[in-house]
Amino acid sequence: MAKFISYPSNVSNQVQAPEISVLVPVMNEAGNVRPLIDEICHTFKGRPFEIIYIDDGSTDETETELKNCLSKIKELRVLRHKRRSGQSVAIRTGLLASKAPLIAVLDGDGQNIPSDLPSLEKALLASRPGMGMAGGVRQGRKDSAMKKFASRRARNLRSWLLKDTHPDSGCGIKIVDREVFLRLPFFNHMHRFMSVLVRREGGTVIEVPVSHRARNQGNSKYGILDRLLVGISDIVGVMWLLRRSNHPEEIIEIFLNNSDTKATKK
Q: Does position 219 have pLDDT exceeding 70, yes or no?
């Protein structure tokens, strides 16, 4: 069983419960850590929030940079995997440790822009409360032609086999209601299928245009061929999950006094 180990901090923990938890999974992202944290803090300045970095077994200076930030940024929490376990596992580690009802997820390479998060939050709160996800749709994507081509192929495949209508389900920036997030079936690489899995639970998925920028530091951790081969087996697994989903339309709690019967629609 995994156990959580917190780094010591010279700053006391915030008293007010956070309204939103921002999860940032990273692996060898030295040089990208502090600039992204500063952007997140600026975005949510004046509000109670928390930032949870999940260091997925980095071997560069990522851990050192995060330790340096801990003493300066009271909203920051750091969790570390002893060995690399993958992005989905890192996100789940952060989710289970989070304290807010809304969970934001950002890639740690700096290509997602934190200032887009309020737009995602507003769209989500305006939809079905407590039961959904707002996912980013990248505008002017700053990636190589080969990477964009591979993403289009993967998107077409998900649309065909999984009926995934989200135009950019591979986008790393999103906000999800924590209650829904915790219900999702967990498996490695599940973060690539969030829109389908949220709908499987009866949730609403909102599409929100977001900006995108080029990576300034480091290199991508995923090869195009590796992602394609793993993606095919994942799609088969998600197809199996979708075929076996079964949710009651209405749940009724019965009390001794029949007039007190309450119905909850899903």
A: no
Band the pLDDT of 230: cuts 50, 70, 90: low
Distance CA 262, CA 259 (A): 9
E strands in the chain: 20-26, 49-56, 76-81, 102-105, 132-138, 174-177, 204-210, 250-253, 262-265
In whole angstroms, give the CA distance from residue 4 to residue 92: 13
- Is the pLDDT assigned to residue 252 strictly greater than 50? yes
Structural tokens at position 78:
């750091």
Return the DSSP state at 232.
H
Place 167 in a pLDDT band, splitting at 50, 70 and 90. confident
Domains in the chain with CATH codes: 20-265 (3.90.550.10)
Residues 6+ apart with CB under 8 A from 114: 22, 36, 39, 40, 42, 43, 106
CA 242 – CA 193 distance, rounded (Å): 12
| pLDDT at residue 8 tops 60 | no
What's the confidence (pLDDT) of residue 6?
A: 47
Q: Classify residue 243 as exposed, middle or buried by CB count within 10 Å of its CB (0-12, 13-18, 19+).
A: exposed
Query: What does the block give as tokens for 235?
Result: 């799609």
> What residues are paired with 177 via a beta bridge?
102
